[in-house]
Design a protein that fits this description.
Shape: globular
CATH architecture: 3-Layer(aba) Sandwich
CATH class: Alpha Beta
Largest sheet: 6 strands, mixed
Number of domains: 1
Number of helices: 5
Strand order of the largest sheet: 2-3-1-4-5-6
CATH superfamily: P-loop containing nucleotide triphosphate hydrolases
Strand content: 15-25%
CATH topology: Rossmann fold
Number of strands: 6
Distance between the termini: 9 Å
Structural class: alpha/beta
Length: about 210
Amino acid sequence: MGLTFTKLFSRLFAKKEMRILMVGLDAAGKTTILYKLKLGEIVTTIPTIGFNVETVEYKNISFTVWDVGGQDKIRPLWRHYFQNTQGLIFVVDSNDRERVVEARDELHRMLNEDELRDAVLLVFANKQDLPNAMNAAEITDKLGLHSLRQRHWYIQSTCATSGEGLYEGLDWLSNNIANKVRQLALLLCALFFDQLFEHPYLWQLGPFDT
């Protein structure tokens, strides 16, 4: 039993992996964000027709980030990337007031999918460096985020070209993982000691390697 719990705890506190799906309308800055996080620099991008996938290492967590194209003709393909997604990053062009309603509709359509039921939502209010950009509070209202009562979500103002706000967003994602790990660890401890008190003879098998 001691060895079993040792293995469980070692898995809990080992390096974590998280599958992230990053979507948004075309020209929102998704690919620029991905490679700013991956390489720490700005790369020349073209509209993503399919997808880009990269691994981003941050705070003992390996984020596998899928950047999927946002053009209207390929948005129906987004659903093919939903499976096993733990975190959804939705990127919004904060300067694009004409399409923010379209962005809202696409976001809520995705969040109604069963495969994304348990995924946490991080919204990047991107392009905050532009003079007419909507701030995070306005984006929150336009996207109807406060209506997501059953969803754990967070909005972060970002500027992909400078990197401002990007790692704060990853901090929020990593903290979510850490909280889940702590909750699971507490549950395992409770189950472990519950078994000990339910079966007192197990104390004679110690010491327990936990």
